Amino acid sequence: MEIVAKDVRSAAVRIGGGVDSQRTDLESVCEKVSAIVSGNAVVVFTISGCCMCHVVKQLLFGLGVGPTIVELDREAAGGPILSLLHRLAGGDKAVPAVFVGGKFLGGIETVMACHINGSLVPLLKNAGALWL
To answer: Beta strand pairing status for 68-71 and 42-46?
Structure first.
């Protein structure tokens, strides 16, 4: 959990400027994301209508996982969270952004690669998202 908080904070620092109000906003966004991620086994940040987000959700549902889904276009802080996730993803596409066991797993490519190579189910089991 601390790793994610550290990663989210470092991403927030990269987007933040020198203005104190911006830092306060970034800190609150960082705290919100950290709280969501650390309090749930699997979290998927999405945008409604995004086909790749739909694919990730369906894969997880098909495996028997009930992820916490945060649709950023329906969140008041969706824009700042999207910016934070974009930085966390290293400039790659920000959504879908999947967190497993409090750690940032990645986007669609990483999730699919883990599924294909057989490492996704063990990750989900270790996070407490699967009991089989």
So the answer is: parallel
